[in-house]
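Q: What changes when iron/sulfur cluster is included in the input?
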Amino acid sequence: MNRDKRGEIFGRLQAANPRPTTELVYRSPFELLIAVILSAQATDKGVNQATARLFPLANTPAAILALGEAGLREQIRTIGLFNSKAKHIIRTCAILLDRHGGEVPRDRAALEALPGVGRKTANVILNTAFGEPTVAVDTHIFRVANRTRLATGKTPLAVEQRLARLIPREFLQDAHHWLILHGRYVCTARRPRCPECLIADLCECPAKTPPSAPDPASARQTGPAADPDQPATPRRE
Ligand code: SF4
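A: The predicted holo structure follows.
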């Protein structure tokens, strides 16, 4: 995909949503960190329901440690993998108090040293809590970047590095949110909504959904539909 097309894509996404942000509900970098740790293999809606219970009780590292692992588990038990997430959060809170004065560090290495925090989570925190122009490549961004040919790559890291290099600088800060939202609501995994897509004429996907395409449920009766993703999309972390 050429530079002019990339610029036009982000210009349109920006015009449609000038102030994009995360759908996770948070009021501090610490709340965002906890919400993002909880969001692995969970929906933002499910995380928001759990944090609506948890944060009024405990929204600082000291308060969560005071709640204890069993108390924390009780508040987040509606979320997948809540046992291991509770362990990670308790250890993360202890480290934040011991090494960072109870604050979330604005530093990639320090963030990635926290239990339950990988590169993707660190990128979300750096971008959304601290305003840095990072791109956290989740399953949606990986799919959209490869499908559209905006930035192709076989791994999330390869796509992240290409996006960081190829997205015009003025769009980099918000690109993360635009691409996630586009993947979540328009360029969906099973049946991308190409007829309604505002970048359809710029997208280089070779297998767009035609207008009035048959429902995938009926298509399955005659065999699998062609997968427009190249390469294959990884499972959500
Ligand atoms: S045209 Fe289709 S495949 Fe391309 S970005 Fe839009 S929804 Fe995704």
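Observations recorded in class: Residues 147-148, 186-187, 192-194, 197, 199-200, 203, 205, 208, 228 surround iron/sulfur cluster (CB under 6 Å).
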